[in-house]
């Protein structure tokens, strides 16, 4: 079947099976969507049973300079350190040990610094992360959920952001989900060019 005349079925929700291969795709991800999705993908690495948070930091040229998720410090085994939220023995709760995604993403940076960058994060940062964000020079935070808006840690974080000029805005996704389909890469295999011919003699050496 000749797919060249088939057009995209929809313009916004992820990838469509049929598309016009002679025109620019219209169902590509917007920057905000792409970076927030990157943060959410990173969150899938988290071992935390309750809260999986991911972060993606980008510079003003929209280049990713850091990615992170919440987890135990290096050398502190995921299997040996506690994941409990509450425990009779306070020493056995995760809060004392887990590195939040924001801090990890900043420390994971692949650039000299994160000055003037913006951070995409699934959940509004806590006060401890707000301090790190401010001190690192990050200038804006794009978050998805503000479910702990009444918690003292969030209120303190906003107070510090407001005082130090770090802007923050909520990201409202256009699509509820983005599907990553590993077979997508072969969607047009029926229109694949013939196999690469066997090597021919280099004309320069003839
Ligand atoms: Zn935090």
Automatic annotation (TrEMBL):
Lineage: Eukaryota, Metazoa, Ecdysozoa, Arthropoda, Hexapoda
Keyword terms, alphabetized: Hydrolase, Metal-binding, Nucleotide biosynthesis, Zinc
Known catalytic reactions: dCMP + H2O + H(+) = dUMP + NH4(+)
Pfam families xrefs: dCMP_cyt_deam_1 (PF00383)
Protein name listed in UniProt: Probable deoxycytidylate deaminase
Family (UniProt): Belongs to the cytidine and deoxycytidylate deaminase family.
Gene for this chain: LOC107222736
Role description: Supplies the nucleotide substrate for thymidylate synthetase.
Organism: Neodiprion lecontei (Redheaded pine sawfly)
Annotated ranges, domain CMP/dCMP-type deaminase: 30-168
The EC number(s) this enzyme carries: 3.5.4.12
